[in-house]
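Aim 2, interim progress. The first record below pairs a target sequence with its structure tokens.
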Amino acid sequence: MLLVRVIGLFCILLLTPLLARAESVLDLSVQDSKTNLASMMQVLDVAYGERHEPYQILDGASWVPVEHTPAILAAPREQSSIWLRVVLSNDSDMPLYRWLEISPWALDEIDAWLLVPDTRQTVGHWRIGADVPVESRAVKTTRAVVPVSLSAKEQVLLLLHVRSNHRPALGVTSWNPVDFVIAERDRYQKHSVLFAIVLTLFVVLLLQHNLHYLLLACWMLALFVLEAEKEGYISYLLFSEQSDIGLNIRFMSSLLEKSLFIAASVFFLGLNKHPYWRWVPIGVLGVTFLASVTGFFLDGVAVRRLASGVHIFFALLWLCIVPAAMKISARWQPFLIGLLSLNWLITTLLVMSFALNIHYNLSFSLARVGIEIMVIMGLLLIYVLKQREYERMLELQLRESEKAERDRLERAVAQRTQELNQALDAAHKADASKTKFLSRVTHDLKSPLTSIMGYSQLLSTEQGKTGQMSHIIYDSASHMLNLINRLIDYARDVTSIEMNEVDLYLHAFINNVSHEGRILAGKNNNGFRLEIDELLPSVIRCDETLLREILLNLLDNAAKYTVNGDITLRIYDKNTHESKKGSVLQLVCEVEDTGCGIDAEEHDQLFDPFFRVSDKGEGAGLGLAIVKELVERMQGHVGLNSAPNKGTCVRFTVPVKPGREDAGIAVLKSPTRMLPLYNADGLEAWVVEDSEQIRHLLYTELSELGFAVETFTDAESAIDALQSKDTMPDIILTDYRLPKASGGAVLEAARAIDPLVPVLLLSATWYLQPERQKTGECYTALLGKPVDLARLRHEVARACGLADIQASNSSEAHSSGSVTASSIAINEDSIQQLEVWLELGAVTDITEWCEQLGKQHPESACFAEELNALAQRGDFKAIHRRLLELG
């Protein structure tokens, strides 16, 4: 009996290696998708870098059943290479077609062979795994699937070679292809619906423009990317050409999810204002960035080990945050800590599961996504409730503040009412003081201008260029006086500028403006050119002050931005150019320069107040804005054309009416006492003028000089008189534009009879006529309109050879009107006040003083008139000498 036992034991020892080498047989016809077929196979563990052919592995190696060593199927975070084999059979009476799924899908490389068991002849060979593109696989899916087709009662040997750098587990399941497709479709649908929900929440939170919402949105999105990449969705859809990118995506999204969780915890727990914890979000995001970049330079094993270390560090860091958060006393703080602790517990368990490889599988976790979304929604709810409480608290505080403010205002109103009653009385007094101040300012501002205008009137009697320039000074001073009057009106709360339309000689007005334009242009060495339409009327009706201010602003602006160039002032009637007729003229004025020019993008802003093209120029940027306002006040419009380095042309159009030539505008304003005195002693003078008012003016003026004057309304009647009379007049004054024949016809007729008879031309537009070059030198003198009476008298006297009798008359008047100190009774205080006004140049005050002196002391009337005349002439030194003579 003992011998039998020994022999049996010996036989078992001999048969054990043979039994180990025998292939396991699996009947696929009875297997379902829930059974792990790997546990029924034989396994062989080899070195990662070794390469073997199938026949070498099958014949020369020692295989071990998996059920004896099940731990061999797991090799987490290390490079491994194992072989599996099993005989697959179809014991049914029907052909069998199955898909064998090898999980997890992220295994790097899997080779599968189907061999004939006896002959080891290869029936099929497939290469699958994460490193193999989906397009190169037999079954087009991200899963690792091997197709197996068996006839009834057929057997094949399945040989698998699995290579990976992380194998948490290994499973082989058998699927009916239809069931596999249905299960995969259902899984895609669930994940797609979840993705739509997550994406919608992400967009909604993002549109709130709130940092708390943004952190939650990014946290939720990072979580979904992590779970989606566990199924390979992201790498397959976005990086199908790079099969090895999936590990880095999972690595980065997992770190980003943890860092955003910590950042959200800091903000929701109110630690973002803590002196130390507020820097934690920046720190964890920085660590995430550095680790993610490092992951691209490490292999799979090192990346997973780095991920484990960072995750554990983040978990411990969050625990350190909790004590600081618990110190904050707030109503919702315990609920926030509870929700965040729940999420921390779940993520920590997953990290430990991954680190220790305990029940860890690389698949989409609906439970985790659902729980974390619930946590996020809970945080949102609490945050909204906190915001509402905060708003209600602010509203309550606002109401209390409003009530307190209302009570304070009621008390203040009562007190203020009393103060206002007192202030009203003070305001009446201040208004009276203001009126007095404005009266004084009026004198102080106007007095210097009065002196300027007085001296310019004195100079206007001079011959030559001095007299001409004095008229320009007088016009500019008059324009400034109008501006001062408007400024004073503004100070008196008269804010609206009334249009003051007057009749003016257009050509004389433009000529004076062009003189100032030449002076402005000459500052930067620019040339100036005036182009005026010869068809423009002589007299127009408009606001002279506004029109002058517009033109001077444009000329000044052009002169500032033009150096060594040209400035052109161009004036014409738009209706004439467009062949239109009407009672209203469309006066077009253009100021064109060759300056730096302006970019097209800035054209719309040029007329805005304080806008300047360049900071290098002078001024405050108000010139064009004032021009636009004044043009619109005149019912016109303004436009601009400009290009860089080519220059600028500003054009404005204003409606004006044709004016009426009368005595009110026909002469330049000059004091009568300053006009030279002559005695014609009955010489005969003819006046040819179609305007009745100017004809009467010239008749009166020449009659005062002692001429016998005869007037004519047109050239024809004057020519008939010349041809019918035996004697010629001593002098002829004629206009150029007459109803039929022009003044040139009168000149020709007179010279034809007597070549020496003086003929003076008196016209506003003669210098624009084409006959100027032909006949200009035949006139004895050329006088423009409005008439300068002083020059008229000089030219008439020169033409007729009259002597100036003003000096002798002035001498006689002085001797007859002189007074001595003994004949005048003036107190010392009055004389001191007069000396103060002399120092200030207050002409108005001096003239008023003289009038009062004449009324209070009739015996001093002649002396007062003498001082008044000197004051109006601006001769303050002569007044001072006369005061010294009084002793």
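The second target in this work package is listed in the same format:
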Amino acid sequence: MSSDLKNRPLLGKESNCGILLGILFLFSIISLAFYKYIPGLVVLTIFCQATVIFLDAIIIKGQNNGVGPNPIIYPILTLILWIIFVPLYILDRKNYSNNDTQLKQVTEISTSGLGSGHATIRWGEKGLNPDTRRPVIDSSKNESTSITDEKKSSKLAVINWTGSSKEIQIKNYLIPNPLLYWTALQVENIEASCINLNLPIGNPVDEPKGAMGYWPRYSSISPDQRANYLEWLSSGRSTELSDIGYAFLFFYGLEYRALNEKKDISVIIPEVNLLLKNYTTSNSFNSYLSSFLAYIAAQQLSFISENNFSQYFPNLLTLSYDRVLVALSWHINQNKAIPWKLAYSLANTIPEAPKSVITHKLPIQFKQLFETKFISKFPGGFKIEPSARKFKIEYRPASPSLIYNYQGNSRVTRIEPVEINNPLGKKSQFNKIFSIWAETIEELKPASRKINKGDPALTSQAYHALPDSLKQELDHPEKSRWDQVIAEFNSEDDSIIVPVNSLATLIPIEKRERLTPTQSKLLFSTARDVGYVLIPDHRITGIPYRWDDPVALFPLPDKRTFTSDTYPAVAFILELGMSIALADEKFSPEEQEQLDRVIFGSFKLTSLDVACLKQYQQILIRNPPSLERLGTRLKEHLSDDKKLIIAGYLRDLALADGILDPSEYNALNKIFKAMGLGKNDIQVLFPSDLTSQPDEQPIQISRSSSVRTGELIIKPISNKPFFTLDPDLLREKFIDTREIQKILSDVIIPEDEELLDYSEEHGAVSKTTKSNESDSPIKQEESSGTNYLGLHPKYSNFLKGILTQTELSKIEMQKYSRNNGFMLDAAVEDINTWSEENYGDILFESTEENLISINSEIKTKIEEGAN
């Protein structure tokens, strides 16, 4: 007897029990000759054969998971008619045996008598170990192949497993990395996913969802469904599925291999994770696979290291509750702090954390904001305090085969649970994580309200409502469109001057003469969100953008960077200075030098501030600011002594080149009057004889080199400066620019609130600064009592009087405005902006005859809305 036979067991599917029975059978025949002499010998040999058959059948069924010869019928029939049933049993048991030694010699194995659509199995290369070859299962043959060697064909197992790094071909389907069971035997009640080659295979068809039903088996699905299944397997198990039952069917085999045979765990775990990643629409499928992974990880917990941790937990953000517990337990065992991703999954799955639809409506933004907050509070991760208690991870099988084995078999009623360290034994320690979770929800609520129902895409409105920390991490959804438009206006010197309308259409904003304050704010903030500084800043100018106004865009080097707190006040100083410097319609080098000294030499500015201010100066040269508007703003927000300080600064700026020509003098007078300065105030700023200009003629006043008595002689000199001033004296008296910055900051910040925070939502003017209250000529309590919703109260009396008319001359309108203490142009502009925003159109319209007509339709709407 060879060493191979010596090493074989006496009984079972891999034994030589057939030879043993053959020997006993021959011995029984021989003993008949000695029946007269030893009659009990025949009976003894028959009982021995029946016993061997009984034990061998039981062992084979146990090895084949309940599939094998009947251990009761064969022994009984052997006792009754042994001469027939012992040979029959010897032949039958061969169908259930698996003799790998003889299988190595098989070059072709086929099933006899199979019709069309059935399969033939052959090994690709003769003489090679089948574990290292690709089995080719050819079901295209219609004719049966005769069995020339019974010993060869009888050595196939009941079910065969083909693992990774191999390929099998079934009919026309080449299946890479199969990880599945198959059989060529005509047997029943085998593993649910096992591909039985005796069953017909149809053609792939489209099916309604759920056509496979619950707990499908390969043997019970239709031929066309088998074709669908094989086609999916051949695609690499990654294509879209019309029915999740196909993925379930494949998973049954993986589950059976891991739990029942306890093999190929390292291969099965990544495959199940891949299924979870590819097929996310079925809650049932996700639940079964997540529970399976949690159970296997719990079993292997002591063998999981940092190197293979990601194999069991490839994505910490998508863990189920059970998997979170196992991952937390691993961190406790390893004495490691948990990262933000695991904290996210914990808060996302545990009932104690607040729940919100925001985690689904803004998933990317929620994760990023949670990450930022978590890392800010726990830069090294969150350390868990261990608990002495244990937690049991249980598992309910998905496969009908395992449900039968573990629940149908009375000897084994369930899969044994696995105990792990209870990570939630001290649950209160996680309140810090839950607090971050709740903060993230609250901060994203405004953005969530902007998301369209049924459309999870992040809109511009939703992006605008995101917290600033998130905007720094995310690109604006319309950034590519902005970049495309901006590229059309890039000049050779890298400056970007764009008309407002080109940007407004990207918001989108419909064409209109002037944007509303809210639209101006939106345009400015959207530019910042996209990655640009919009120049001018509407907070500085105090007025909304006009449709055709030129604006500059300066790219931000980093979305975390923006202009400094100093910038708005300095920009306003620049605007004031340019308004005077440009009054004579020219901008001298001396004036530029003086502005550079004041602007860039007197303030602490960032490089971004400097670049933006230079761009702003180019815009101001193209589109000089309104002197009346500037004066009105200063009047409304400054006390008298501060007005004089600003007026002195403007005077000195105009005299930067040592001369003051008539146009500059007129400009100063205009802005001083708009500021509300009286004649006495102006005399403080200029010599008494210069407070009025003589007959359109330029006047020159020179400082005498010696003091003498007498009166200055005013001599008309054409095309000469109005007067000159000693530059040295000018430098001595120049106002401290830091004081100017501080004063103008009070002008800019309230203007931002006034321009942008009139809201119907609050039912009244939502912001009224202290300076408004103290400096405005018309106090709120002095108003007419009529409330025009969202309009500054100072305009109430003025508007009430105007609404009694249908058309007025500008002279009449100026009279109304003077009586109420403000400039007409500013009042008309503010009221038109308010009416357009709230009622859809402007109230005042200019005509060619120097008249101002009142829009009757808007007038009616205003009167109806007034209290």
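The chain has 37 helices and 20 strands. This observation will shape the mutagenesis plan for the next reporting period.
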